[in-house]
Structure formats: structure tokens, C-alpha cells
Specification:
The chain is 34% helix and 13% strand. It is an alpha+beta fold. The chain folds into 2 domains: 95 residues, DnaA, N-terminal domain (GMP Synthetase, Chain A, domain 3); 34 residues, no CATH class. The C terminus is likely disordered.
Amino acid sequence: MSERRVPPPPLLPEDENPSPELTALRDRHAAIRDAARSRHQNAGALLNSRCYIKSFDGGTVEIGFQSQLLVDKALGDHAVLQAMSDAVGSIAGCPVKVVPLVWDVLQRNVPGAAKRAILQTQVPCACCNGPAIWYLVCPHCDG
């Protein structure tokens, strides 16, 4: 099966310096997805969507999804949720509870740049020096 590349997760203002544990889990997204798929096909399919590990506190992992529909699919089938928890736990090296939720950053759309990744950046636009805080491109000049 071909490997799907996972874009880097969006950064929220409170998440500018993610913990090493959170970074390690995010870096192993493909392995988590494959482990979930081996446990339950639908769990792998959900983790193949645009989703990211939002937080990891050692016992709970929040996985942010782009839509409520995907969250409902994860919550609607205990076997899917258990497969996701077991897969993340196998990579994390400890039992975890997966909590699926809608991550609002994944819902943001940039007019004229819908196919571009939406990531937070603290770097101002090089063209107009305007704020480019929530976009890879400046929302003012598209630079």
C-alpha cells in the first residue's frame, strides 16, 4: 500500500512549543494510522482523513478532525474508537484514551487559496509587512 504523506499539523497560539512526546506522536501519524487500520478498517480510514493529534497528556490523546461528521463516525462505533486508542497506545508505549473532536483550525478557509495548507505563522508578510498570522500567505496581498 502506498504511503500517504501527512502535512504538518496546524499550530495554535498555545501550542507554539509542543512537548517532545506530542511531537513524537505527530511524527508517527502514518504508523498510528496503519496500526489502527490493522485493528479496524474504519479506524484507519478516519485517521487517513485530514486529522492531527492536538494534544497528549500521557493518558489522553485528543485527535482533531476537520468536521463533526468524522468525529461522529469515530464516536459512533466503540470498536473504531478502541482501535484508534489501541493504535495510539502501541506507538506511545502506554495505554491511552483517544478523544476525537472538531479542531476549528482545520475548518478555516482562505479565499483564493483553498488548496494551500493553513498554518499559523508569526512571520509578517515579506511584501507588505502585514500580519500573516493564520496563513502561509498574506491575506492582504496574497504574497
